[in-house]
Amino acid sequence: MTLQSNYTTLEAPRLRKLSDDQVERLHHASLEILEHTGVRLFEPQALELLKKKGIQVEDGNRVYIPAGLVEWALSVAPKRTVLCDRHGRRVMPLERNNVFYGPGSDCPNVIDVRTGERRRGTLQDIVEASTICDSLTNIDFLMSFCIASDLPQDTADRHQMRAMLMNSTKPNG
């Protein structure tokens, strides 16, 4: 299969905010937080899997992930993956310094394109944004653009994903 995309590869000099030492210190601080402070995990299947592997879980869903497990996971994680569009075309090689563009997500408010007024986002806004983004060649992937306030919030994410899938062939997130 051929790789089709308009992504940018940053092979030239680029702005870098953190030194190698700062990146390493940030990584070690993250490991410290995961192991000693823990994180809340809300996915029941993931919680069960970790419990079965002997990972410490407290208060129902606070997970303490040992640094060694994180380092192991990073060492076996793929260094490259490619996202496909709905036609199966390989369009987003996620590796090294590749840069891809897409709209933001989960904004509670939008500017109504017809009235110019600020208002709460709706499912129709997501439908329209998905349709527009699908036709823009400089947009590589979609996100939900806004939160559909006109839906029950316990199921809104599923309706938002459906709207993106039904109105674009680009990778959705």
Overview of the molecule:
The chain is of the alpha+beta class and 173 residues long. It folds into two domains: 20-76, no CATH class; 81-167, no CATH class. Helix content is 36%, strand content 16%. It is built from five helices and nine strands. The protein has helices at residues 20-37, 44-52, 67-76, 123-135, 156-167, and strands spanning 8-9, 39-40, 56-58, 62-64, 81-84, 90-94, 98-99, 109-111, 118-120. A three-stranded antiparallel beta sheet has the order 2-4-3. Strand 8 and strand 9 (118-120) form a beta hairpin. Helix 4 (123-135) packs parallel to helix 5. The longest helix has 18 residues, at 20-37.
Secondary structure layout:
Layout: E1 8-9, H1 20-37, E2 39-40, H2 44-52, E3 56-58, E4 62-64, H3 67-76, E5 81-84, E6 90-94, E7 98-99, E8 109-111, E9 118-120, H4 123-135, H5 156-167
Antiparallel strand pairs: 1-7, 2-4, 3-4, 5-6, 8-9
Helix pairs in contact: 4-5
